[in-house]
Amino acid sequence: MDTKANISKGPLAGLRIIDSTTMVAMPTGLHIMADMGAEVIKVETHTLFRTEAARLLYADNDPGDEPWNRDGSFNTLQRSKLGLTLNLKVPEAVQAFKELTQISDVIVENNRAGTMDRLGLGYEELRKVKPDLIYVSNTGFGHTGPWRTYAGIGRMFELTCGLSQFTGYPDEGPRRVGKAFFDLHVGWTAVFAILAALHYRQKTGRGQWIDLAMYQIGVSTMGDAILDYTANGRNGQIVGNRHPHHAPHGVYPCKGDDNWIAMGVENDGQWDALCEAMSSPSWTREERFTDTLSRWRHQDELDPLLSQWTRDFDHLELMALLQKVGVPAAAVMNSREVLTDPHMRARNFFEHIPHSPGSGIGTKSYFGRPWKMSKTPSFIQRPAPSLGEHNELILGELLGRSQEEIERLYEIEVLGTVPTDPPTFIPPSYEKQLEDGSLAGYDPDYSKIVGIE
Amino acid sequence: MAATALGQFRIIDLSTHIAGPLCTKMFADYGAEVVKVEPLGTGDPSRNIGPFFKDDPHPEKSLLFFYLNCNKQGVTLNLETAAGRNILLSLIKDADALIESFPPGYLAKLGLGYGELEKINPGLVVTSVTPFGQDGPYRDYAGNDLVYYAMSGMMYASGAHDREPLKHGHPQSYYMGGMIAAYATSAALFSRTLTGQGQHIDLSLQESVAAHQYDSATRYSYTGTIERRAPKVESGSTKGTRFEGIVPGKDGYIAPTMQRGRPTAPFSDYVALLGHPELDDTKFASRQLIAEHREELDDVLLPLIKEWKKEDYFNTFMSEGFVAGVVQTSEDLVNCPQLKERGYYTEVEHPVIGRIKVPGEMFRLPECPWSLRSPAPLLGQHNEAVYCGELGYTKEDLVMLRQLRAI
């Protein structure tokens, strides 16, 4: 392989990874590795519902002729990858999977424990054809222990991993924040785990099987809370947007409907700067607000006074005004504001990716990676593959199958580019979504606003 | 010595608080040699952040610091002195990576910018973890967990429809940043084996949280619609076909669902497992019907779920293939049978705290497993070991350097 050409593609160029996963966590980790130049082959089957493409985020809310290729979440999570359909219920597909393993470095799967063994594609079987294989099995709770068979769904880990004991409005019970929250942590940690195994392989020539449990990765962000119980017998408390020792700390209303400024004041200097920005009204000099401890104790009285001041400001202008004097403040940004934010624009955080003309999707904006490497730049290599888009490329060029053989694989339903069970659900109209309150707004000229016309 | 995945790497860690130290903790846990370099006096500010062991606010008893810095060596160094800067340059000569979290431009001002470090060690990977990155109009903005949540889009869409936006109650953005810094640093080290070149990594904590939003930013780019805190995601209700809410049980909170693999399990199976098969009703026979009768469903199910202990509910429904969650407390995590069975907790002896049980393995690498080799270092604990043992200074030199306020 031409090493130099690969290096220009990113830090992981030259690696080949088989992505036999679904949902959010592993697809996240693997699209990052693909952005970094690894050749990631997403293996799926047209005979099963493309579950990750069922979030009903169709381009322009229109399922089109091929709804399974038009879902925005799917296309975010699978970008930069190649797409192969293999119906592993047919022996010819299992054979092709094994041949692909022989020329790959890493396999990642997230089936329930035992599924891959039943298909004849477990680690013990595959290491026979590829002795230094790195094989990641991602499950909810790991392959051992009393909970090993329990279903692992991203949005439940916030609760079971201990994060929800802190999260919610203090006058209510616990709540979720974000969606499928720990899925992303698990995806990022998977990249680290795979790279750790690759570093070990470089040193020793040995591969291995990685048991990656979502639960343990989520719990590992709770170390201080766990030790607080061990040492002090204390459990977490629901704190809303407040902080264990800083005040004021929360969100305050601004001008307009549902606009907010977040402020987290961490010391006396920042408090003084905030007071000056407010032209030091007399209440700021009252004894109950003169030092951090007393401000923290009198938050219930402090917050309404601050809200009185913030509500006359535009939230974005107030952010600039407060940051200018050193107060950690931020507009609570909605998705339009995030996508058009001048800072992230200046850093090219979002990448504009044209989809193929035949897809009818056009150019879309996707988030990149929250880091930049100075010498091996990463980028979205290509839009997400349509179902079976690279079947011919992979079976023909990589596995040496003839055109006739490939056609036969389509006939016996090993390969397919149209799902046997296509999604039929029509998403509700924008009007209905606005009416039921799940949308804050709709911009018909969004392409112009984002700059993807 | 046991095989390790990352034992071949030596990392100099100038970072403080949570994100950078979590990154180097992940390396250290899988074998890397990490030298934590702390400022003189108070050391890493996280030494002054609770919780503290036995609620004693002693700089060696911060459990946050302790958790994030096990397996590392600790030295003190004053980069504002010429002697301190020279020691740092000696340290990085043989290092593979340097992690730092100073404000952008600070190290360059001291003559320790990436350009300078690269001259001394071209293979060095330098990872800078900052609030908003090294460039761009917000480069010098002040950041913290609340600020990153607000500017990611996640907060706007979280919480109750008619109340203020909500963030997590535990500072997760720093943990996200740490995990991301860890894989990015590791990828740059992997790339180095092909190129022989180190490089500079510029990581933004704000973008780390924004990179969590795999659908809301995309939603705008795909449809022009702005997602809001949705009315259906209610706490204290089972409303909606997927039971979005988190509802009270007998001894804590439960998130019930009727999901069992795919498709959604029949209502009859659900109520049978709940102990009330007589409640089976054609009114709730499909997702569509459940959505239509959501208020009624609350009336039927909430009082029954309230009678369940959360652990019983979790085990009963999960072992039958249903999807369920329970709000575990720290106490539940400490006593969790799954974590116990998987050997998640281990013990270590700390010179000031004493013997303490510690959360451990993030993921299992059977060939070269995680290990706990040492507790978090005391402030300056390894000055002699590192400066004399490795850099060749004498004990007299240490006295001199101390008097110069360099170490």
Strand content of chain A: 5-15%
CATH fold naming of the largest domain in chain A: Rossmann fold
CATH third-tier fold name of the largest domain in chain B: Rossmann fold
Provide a count of the helices of chain B: 17
* Helix fraction bin of chain B: 25-40%
Shape of chain B: elongated
Please tally the β strands of chain A and state the result. 13
**Biggest interface, which chains?**
A-B, 173 and 154 residues
Cα-to-Cα separation, first versus last residue of chain A: 38 Å
Low-confidence stretches of chain A: 1-7
CATH superfamily of the largest domain in chain B: Crotonobetainyl-coa:carnitine coa-transferase, domain 1
Number of domains of chain A: 2
- Which assembly state applies to the chains in this document? heterodimer
Structural class of chain A: alpha/beta
Largest sheet of chain A: 6 strands, parallel
CATH class of the largest domain in chain B: Alpha Beta
CATH class of the largest domain in chain A: Alpha Beta
Indicate the CATH architecture of the largest domain in chain B.
Answer: 3-Layer(aba) Sandwich
Gap between N and C termini of chain B:
31 Å
Examine the secondary-structure arrangement and name the CATH architecture of the largest domain in chain A.
3-Layer(aba) Sandwich
What is the H level of CATH, i.e. the homologous superfamily of the largest domain in chain A?
Answer: Crotonobetainyl-coa:carnitine coa-transferase, domain 1
